[in-house]
C-alpha cells in the first residue's frame, strides 16, 4: 500500500461543495478563457476529496493562470514569477497536514521558473503542480512562450520564433517525476479524474493542462480536438487505440513506439498502457508522440504514476529520529559545547 | 639532554601560522586557539585563506594563514601585525614577511627551501642563508624532517608522514607558550577515531614537537601569558557563524516556532547552513535549495505556513533574493535574511571581508520596500543580533536583514554562555478568530487588519478554520488584503508599510556613547565588525592623553531615536567603514551633519594602529583650529 498524497490532512466533518471553495472575488479572466473551466472543475473536484477546506493551500507564480488562488476560498499565495514550486516546498515541508497545490503556466514554470520546477519534481516534494499550457504569453500580451511551436509569429518574433519548444511531459519525466499527466480544459470528466489522481499521489505530481487562450493564441488545440486530429487517450491497463479505433500505438521489434493503423497492425504489438512501470522509458516514448509544431496529435491521460518516497516525509523522519525530548535543555547543551572553561572575577 | 628554559611573562602575543593551503594551517590555528581559550586568555582570531581550495603548491596565491591574538587582558582585535610568524614553506615566509615588525620571531620549516621552490616565488637566494633576515629572530628548523622522523614507526606513506608537520609545529608552539595540551590530544583522538594509524601518528608528531622544545636548546626562553580577567561565568570560544546559528535556533525556540532554513551554499555563509543542518536534535529543518531564490522562496513559504523562515547568504545571493524579499515586504510575513558580507562586486574576493552591502540591505529592492537592518559587532554578538532579528521579524511581520561579515563569520572570541531562561519570549500572536465584518455585515477575517501599536498585520496560518485568505505580491487593499489598484490605497499602504518599520524605533534602545573623560570633541561612530578596531584604537588614543568618544550602531534601520542628537553633540564625527562611505552618506543625508568618512577596502579588518594615528591627527587638528 502506498501512502496517499492526502495522508495527514484532516478530514472534513461535513461534506463540502463547490460553493464552499468559491471565494467572493470577481473572476477576471478574458471571456472564453480556458482557465474558467479548470477553475470550476477544480472547485468541484477539491470538494470531493473529503478534506477540511482550511487545509488546502494554493501557491501560484505570475501570469494569467496564476490569479487562480484568489478565486478559491482556501489559503493561498499569489507569489512572484516562476518561484511558486520553491515557496510551496517551504509550505509542504513544514506542514504535513496541508494539501498543497501549485498553479503555474508555460512561461512561469518552464521559462523563468524552469529551475524550480525540475528540482521540485526531482526531490519529489508532496505537491501537485497544475501547468496551464496555452503555448503563449498572455499577461504580457502575446509573446511566444517556451512551448510555442517553432516559427511562431508574435510581437517579439515577427519573423517567426527560432527556438525549439519544450514538451512539458517529456521534461517532467526526465526530471524524475513520479506522477506525470496531461489533460485538457475542454474535457471536464477527464480533468476531474486526472486532478483527483494527482491529488492522491504522494510526492510531486505534474499535470499539464492544455488550455486555450482566445485572445493571443486562439484555437491552439482546435485541430487536436477536430476530426483531423488525434487525442490519444491513455488508460491504465488498456491497449492504446484512438480515432474511433482506427489507429493504435505499437511497439516495433527494435523497441520504437509509433502510431499505426489498427487494421494492419500486429495485435501482439499494440501497447497496453501501464502507468505504474518503474522504468520511465515507455512513458517518455509515449510523450514523444506529441507533435511539437501545430498540434494534430497528442496523448492525454496519466503517463506515469509510481510511488517514490516524498522529500518532505523524509525530512520530517530524519528530525523525528533524533529530536531531543527537552528542547530547551538540549539547546543549552549544544550552546555550551564540548570545550568550556570557568572564569572567576579577578 | 633536557634543559629548563627560562619562562618569561608576557601580556599579549600575536602569532600567525602560515603555510600552503593544504598544510592544515586553519586546523593548527583553531587548535592553538582552543588551547589558549581554555587556558583563560582573552583571544581574537583572523583566519585568512585563498578562495581556491588548493592553489598550486608552494606558490604565493596558495598561502593560507591564521592569526591569533591572546592576552592577559581584554582584547578586541586579532592584532594588526604578528609578533611571531610560523612559516611552513618559502611562499608562506615571503607572503607574510612584510607584516612582521623588526625583531619579530620567525619559526620556519626549512624542508621546502630548495632552489626550485625558491625560484617558484621569485627568490634567487635563500633568505635563510643570505643574511636578509638578520633583523629578525629566526628559528630555522626542518619541521617536516623532524615530524617524519617522529612518526617513522607508523605504516604511513611519505606524503602522510610529512603531513603531520603541522601537529609537530603545534606541539612546539604549545611548549613555547606553555599551553595546555589535553584538549588537542582528545580532539585528535576523536577526529581520527576511524583512522587509528593517522590518529596515532598525529598525536606522536604533536608530542614530539612539544618534547623537541623541552629537550633541545633551540629555544632559550619560553613564554607565559597569564589568564585574562573576565566576568565570572562559564566560557567557550565562538565564531560568528556558529553564534548566528545558535541565535536563530534560540530565537525560534523563544517564539515557539519551527525554525526553517532555506539556503544555497555560498562563502562565507555556508557554515551557518552546516551547523543548522546538524541540529535536527533541536528540531531545525534545513533545505539546501537549488539556488538562492529558492532558498528565500522556501523560507517565505515556511513562514506563510506558520514557521520562522530564515535564509542565509552573502552579497551575490542577496542580489538574487531581492525580488523575493520584496514579496515578503508586500505579504508582511516574518523572514530573517542573514548576509555574511564579503568583498565585492560580483564574485569579488569571496573569502575576504567587507561591509559594502549596507546600501543593498537598506535599498536594494524595487519599489518602496523598507526592511529593518541589524548588524552584529563581534563574533559573540552575532548570537544576540540573530535573536533580535527573529524578535523584530515575528513581532512586526516583516523581513529583517542581519548583516555579518567574513571577519566575524570565521573569527573567534571567548563567549560567556548566556542564561537562556533570561531571554524574553517572542510572541507570534497568531490570528485564531475573525476580526472584521464584511460589506454584507457578516463576520470576516481581514488579513491586513493591524495591531494599533506595532502596525503588524494579522497572521493566520493555513489550517485555521474560518480564516481562509489569499495574499500575494499585488498591492493589497488596506484591511481586507484584496487586490487593489486604487491610487489612494497604494499611497496609504506604501506609507503604512514605511510607518510600521519606522515605528520599530520605539522598541529599540538609544545608542550609548562611551566617553570616559566626558570631554571628547570627536566621536567615532561604527557599525558591524569595525567595533573591534575602533574600540582598540580609541583605547590607545585615550592612553595617549587625548579624549575621544565612541558609539556603535546595531540597528541600521530604523536608527536609534537619539542618534541625530548624539551626532550633533560633537565637533567632528568619524565613521570608519570597510566600504567607500555608505553609512557616512546616509547619516549626512538624514541628519544634515558633516561626517568624516574613514574608508578601507582591503578585504581585511581596519588596521587599529592606522586608525589610532589618523584619529590622533584629527583630534590634534581640531585642537589647533581653536
From TrEMBL, chain A:
Single GO term (MF): magnesium ion binding
InterPro entries registered for this protein in UniProt: 2-oxoacid:Fd_oxidoreductase, THDP-binding, TPP_enzyme_TPP-bd
Cited Pfam families: TPP_enzyme_C (PF02775)
GO biological process: cellular respiration
Keywords associated with the record: Oxidoreductase
Superkingdom classification of source: Bacteria
SUPFAM superfamilies: Thiamin diphosphate-binding fold (THDP-binding) (SSF52518)
Name of this chain's protein: 2-oxoacid:ferredoxin oxidoreductase subunit beta
UniProtKB/TrEMBL annotation, chain B:
GO molecular function: magnesium ion binding; oxidoreductase activity, acting on the aldehyde or oxo group of donors
One GO BP: response to oxidative stress
CDD domains registered for this protein in UniProt: TPP_PYR_PFOR_IOR-alpha_like
Gene3D superfamilies reported for this sequence: 3.40.50.920, 3.40.50.970, Pyruvate-ferredoxin oxidoreductase, PFOR, domain III
Domain of life: Bacteria
Official protein name in the record: 2-oxoglutarate ferredoxin oxidoreductase subunit alpha
Species this chain originates from: Tessaracoccus lapidicaptus
